[in-house]
Amino acid sequence: MVLRIQKFLSQCGYCSRRKAETLILESRVTVNAQTAAIGQIIDAARDIVKVDTVRIHYTPPKQPIVLMLNKPRGVICTHPTKCAPEKTVFDFIPDAFAKERFLYCGRLDKDSQGMLILTNDGDFAHKLTHPSSNITKIYHVTLSHPIASEQKIQLLRGIEDQREVLRAEKVLELPSRNSRQTLEIHLKQGRKREIRRMIDACDCHVHRLKRVQIGQLKLKNLSVGHVKCLAQEDISRLFAL
Fold first, then answer.
1. Can you say how many angstroms the Cα of residue 14 is from the centroid of all Cα atoms in its chain?
2. Which of 43, 47, 95, 109 is catalytic?
């Protein structure tokens, strides 16, 4: 089968296409002992593809599996290693899928909780996370102390941080059972620790952060630490605008 190198890595379940492009740019991918280039066409059945020193063997496309995890706080989004023995999101994969290699679609940091999508399909992961899909993600964010209306407006206008513009699509105030202010923040882009960086720029800090919705799919009725295998109807909701 002839296909582009980044799609080959994605289809083999090694990583998403976006991650594959990063690996290629870092010169960590070789084809027949030659450094690979983004968009390079390969013969999946004949060419020898390696990431670092590990050969990646071609596997025919599988039936995509898409899971939704209600990620607990204190759990990291990374594959477990001997050097990083912390509990990871992949520890929650049901035994029935133990032989599959899963990717997460949109990281939640260690201190955040809520909806996390996992899949064995690299193309699916790429589609769900790529900005061109224009998918809204909704978070409930409890703050260390209230911020002013002017600061909420600034979140909508955009905040420049580390040469990036961080911007919320919508900011709503939610009823709170205690003295802490809770906001519902809608994002379309997915920059690293984006909400925490925006709130820090408002001279405030995030007390709790929970992702509650992606597209039109909601987290409701899934307990913390539990996993749901998504049906096609649920998957369609992920991409609904």
1. 15
2. 109
**Which residues span the domain enclosing 77?**
66-132+218-238
109 carries an active-site annotation: yes
The SS3 call for residue 40 is: coil
Give, to the nearest 10 degrees, the angle between helix 122-129 and helix 17-25: 90
Tally helices (H) and strands (E) across the chain: 6, 17
For the chain of 241 residues, list the mean pLDDT of each consecutive stretch of 10: 89 84 95 95 93 88 88 91 78 91 92 96 87 92 94 95 93 88 93 94 96 96 96 93 78
Tell which of 32, 55, 78 closes a domain. 55
Task: Find out whether 167 and 156 touch, Cβ atoms under 8 Å.
Answer: yes
Look up the CATH number of the domain holding residue 125: 3.30.70.580
Residues in CB range of 171: below 8 A, 6 or more apart: 152, 155, 156, 183, 184, 185, 186
pLDDT recorded at residue 61 = 66
- For the residues of 66-129, what is the DSSP string, one character each? EEEEEEPTT-BSS--BTTB-S-BGGGGS-GGGTTSPPEEES---TT-EEEEEEES-HHHHHHHH
d(CA 97, CA 62): 13
The total number of residues written for the chain in this structure? 241
Q: What's the confidence (pLDDT) of residue 94?
A: 93
Q: Check whether residue 46 and residue 151 sit in a common domain.
A: no
| Three-class DSSP category at 154 | helix
Q: Is residue 61 part of a domain?
A: no
